[in-house]
């Protein structure tokens, strides 16, 4: 499944009203976050294809960010939704690898998957 850009309130409404559905939104600021596309959403969309993945540029889609209650000064972060509720959040201002690992662990947990590295 391809990663989509979350740009409209209409798309957000659809995400929040879809049942039995996990959505991962990576929130970033295009004007200041040159690292935004380094997060492995494309890879996760293949590995964990039961979920939907979105990029939210907090600069260009300000109404969507406002609707989610995201302050423009917040660092990049992941939001994880299931059945219209936010069930997880990971701030990406910490060490890059640590934030990526934590976000991926939450995705696996919410999808009911085990960490394959622990079960070789």
How are the elements arranged and paired?
Layout: E1 4-5, H1 9-17, E2 22-28, H2 41-47, E3 51-57, H3 62-67, E4 77-82, E5 85-91, H4 96-111
Name some characteristics of this structure.
single chain; 120 residues; Glutaredoxin; 5-stranded mixed sheet; 32% helix
Low-confidence spans = none
Arithmetic mean pLDDT: 81
CATH 2nd-level architecture: 3-Layer(aba) Sandwich
Number of domain units: 1
- By secondary-structure content and strand pairing, the structural class works out as alpha/beta
- Rg over CA atoms: 14 Å
Question: Total number of helical segments?
Answer: 4
How many strand units? 5
**Helix and strand run:** EHEHEHEEH
CATH fold descriptor: Glutaredoxin
Tell me the major beta sheet.
5 strands, mixed
Shape: globular
> How do the strands line up in the largest sheet?
1-3-2-4-5
Share of residues in strands: 15-25%
Roughly what percent helix? 25-40%
Distance between the termini: 26 Å
Protein name: Thioredoxin domain-containing protein
Organism: Echria macrotheca
Written description of the protein model:
- The chain has four helices and five strands.
- The chain has 120 residues and is α/β, with parallel strands linked by helices.
- The protein has one domain: 3-Layer(aba) Sandwich (Glutaredoxin), CATH 3.40.30.
- Strands 1-3-2-4-5 form a five-stranded mixed beta sheet.
- The mean pLDDT is 81.
Summary of the model, kept short:
This protein is an alpha/beta fold. The protein has four helices and five strands. The longest helix has 16 residues.
